[in-house]
Amino acid sequence: METANTDLIVSPLFDVKQTTYGGRACFAREDSKEGTNILSVNRCLSSSISHEFRKEVCHNCLKYNNGKIMKVKLDRNQLVDDLLPDGKKEQVSRPKTFNGAGLWFCCDSCRDEYISQDNIIELIETFETLLAHFQSQAKRRNTASRIEEEHKLNETFMSPKIIGSNWSMIEKDWIPRIDQLKASKKARMLPLIYEEEYQCCRFVAQTLFNLKYTDPNSVLMKTFEALQSNEQSRIHKFPILLDSQTKVFQTLYVLLPFSLKPLLTISLFRHILGSEYGNAFGIWQDGESNDSREYLGFWIVPQASYFNHSCSPNVDKKRIGNKLTFTLNSNVVAGQQLCIDYSGILSLDVHKRQEILSENWFFQCGCEKCQLELQTIH
Ligand SMILES: [Zn+2]
Ligand SMILES: [Zn+2]
């Protein structure tokens, strides 16, 4: 039996319901024809472009032009002129070193659209601070010792108890100690971070910024709060993540500006990263086959995170710029479950599909196609 969850109404065409076999799923509310658009999401909670592609993807429309570097960056003077009210412009320092906050755009109008978002200056300042910090550590980074450390950490066993005591140590020991230091000393206490942690800092900062300006009663907020956290399964699989997440938290705790710092609690931080695993959508290069397209990054779209996977899905998802649409690829009847393909694996054989889904999404696929194929093979 499924029970309707009235809190999570994301589309007039389907219900999000709790299932008896675990988690929520989406069910058609009425008979609908192939080709029906059942959900379009224009606003994600957060997106993260891989470090490797940071200069090659437009941070507004997510355009990727076969590895060409995007032409347009942010300019400090223009930001001050465009974003601050007249009276405040003179009070703002215009430092010579502004590196564009690690944001690249395909054209002037994408940059203009990006900076026209309400309060975006708070996020741009945060990105710029994180970038300056990341660059300041460049000389200390040593890839060989990092790899060695990764191997060592990945051999450790991480139980829920160890994860819990790590965070309670941060809360009870590290935070009080850092709070007592002068501002100038805090940054020197920060751990060395590598690309993955730097990207993660930016991702969490962007999520906090968006949460700050999201209506607590909105569908976006409700669906985000209800996302399932896969923190434990993921850290169990990649023990190094606990160390990495701790460094990200510490970096943000010291470097977040006053506008975002109050939002950074350990529990929200853990929910953001725990629910990212298994719920994020990949941002893939457009117009290429599944085998040859580039993985450019990922984004969190909580409104669209309640579709289950099926190896013969009845819903197609498609990214058009920075929008995500979901369309029926066959007729469905009222009450039928609506499923998508999680990772472009439909052409693989059943064992390979099952392996990929269990490794990355932590479940054993029991879809009709898998059941049928497993019966035939055994
Ligand atoms: Zn663009
Ligand atoms: Zn399946």
Automatic annotation (TrEMBL):
PROSITE patterns noted in UniProt: SET
SMART domains: SET (SM00317)
PANTHER family to which the protein is assigned, alphabetical: HISTONE-LYSINE N-METHYLTRANSFERASE SMYD, POTENTIAL PROTEIN LYSINE METHYLTRANSFERASE SET6
Species annotation: Lachancea fermentati (Zygosaccharomyces fermentati)
Domain SET: 1-343
GO cellular component, one term: nucleus
Protein name: LAFE_0G08240g1_1
